[in-house]
Amino acid sequence: MNKNFKANKTIIAAAIAAMISGVAFAADDAKSVWQDGDTTSVTIGAGQTEKVDVSSKDEVGTEGGAHNTNVATVVVDGGTLEILDGNRLLNNGLKNSLFNVKSGTVTIAGRTEGNTGTDHNAVASVDTDNILIEGGDITLGKKDQAGSYMLGWESFKMTGGKLTINDGAEIRVNNELEEGMVLAGGEVVLNGSAASEDKVARIYINDQDAHRDSALHLDGVKVTVAEGAFGEIAAPKIAMTAGSIDLAKKSTLNVAS
């Protein structure tokens, strides 16, 4: 009886090991919230870290794009969001989609391959209808990895927080509304390493005819060009009612309107 009991224990242990192995395999294959096609809202709270890393996987998207996501609302409220090289938080196909940073840390990285150029299909980005930055610490792009961006198709508003824009990276809005982009608070640090397009850091509104009435409103934001850095502010119209523009030593700022 004891021998049978020992044998049964061995069989049970083997079965449990197989079950655990199966669970681990299923977990590895499970799709993230950015891919599952069902998740419509993600909030990243204090103590949470979420990574967007789908560049090598098939992802469900409303427009069938390789890196689209069906998550319409993303809120960073005290946690950490990392968008890794070449990954795109792309939900511009979803009406009224929102990327909202209340507090916490956001890193939007660089390219999947190569170090130059501004091909938007190869860089990390946030590409959504509406962007609202109320706080937090955001780093956009990497040194020598040009092209990363944050784009609000309908609106881009900043009321607080700190946003650092590195080489060839930009924040921009695509709309035909006079309010365009509103930077009413917080700090934007322009930290490009050269004046060329793939190195300068930009605050930008498209200048095509469709956007000629759009304005950049500097209504309380502090714009800083880092020491030795290159920055650019470009929009069909620029209005400044409050805030400041500070140039550190040996820095350069180009303003085009």
How do you describe this structure in short?
This protein is mainly beta. It is 11% helix and 42% strand.
Give the key terms.
mainly beta, disordered N terminus, 1 helix, 8-stranded parallel β-barrel, globular, 17 strands, 2 domains, 257 residues
Can you walk through the features of this model?
It is a single chain. This protein has 257 residues and is mostly beta strands. It has two domains: 1-30; 33-256. Helices cover 11% and strands 42% of the residues. It is built from one helix and 17 strands. The chain has one helix spanning 2-29, and strands at 41-45, 49-52, 73-83, 88-90, 98-108, 125-133, 137-140, 149-158, 162-165, 170-173, 181-183, 187-190, 201-205, 215-225, 230-234, 237-247, 252-256. An eight-stranded parallel barrel has the order 5-6-8-11-14-12-9-7.
Biggest pleated-sheet summary: 8 strands, parallel, barrel
The 3D shape can be described as globular
Radius of gyration, in angstroms, nearest whole number: 22 Å
SSE pattern: HEEEEEEEEEEEEEEEEE
Query: What would you call the structural class?
Result: mainly beta
Per DSSP, the total helix count is 1
Please give the share of residues in helix. 10-25%
Q: Tell me the fraction of residues in β-strands, as a range.
A: 35-45%
Mean residue pLDDT: 81
- Could you tell me the number of beta strands? 17
Tally of structural domains: 2
Point out poorly predicted stretches. Answer: 1-7, 10-28, 59-65
Which strands sit side by side, in order, in the main sheet? Answer: 5-6-8-11-14-12-9-7
How far is the first residue's CA from the last residue's CA?
90 Å
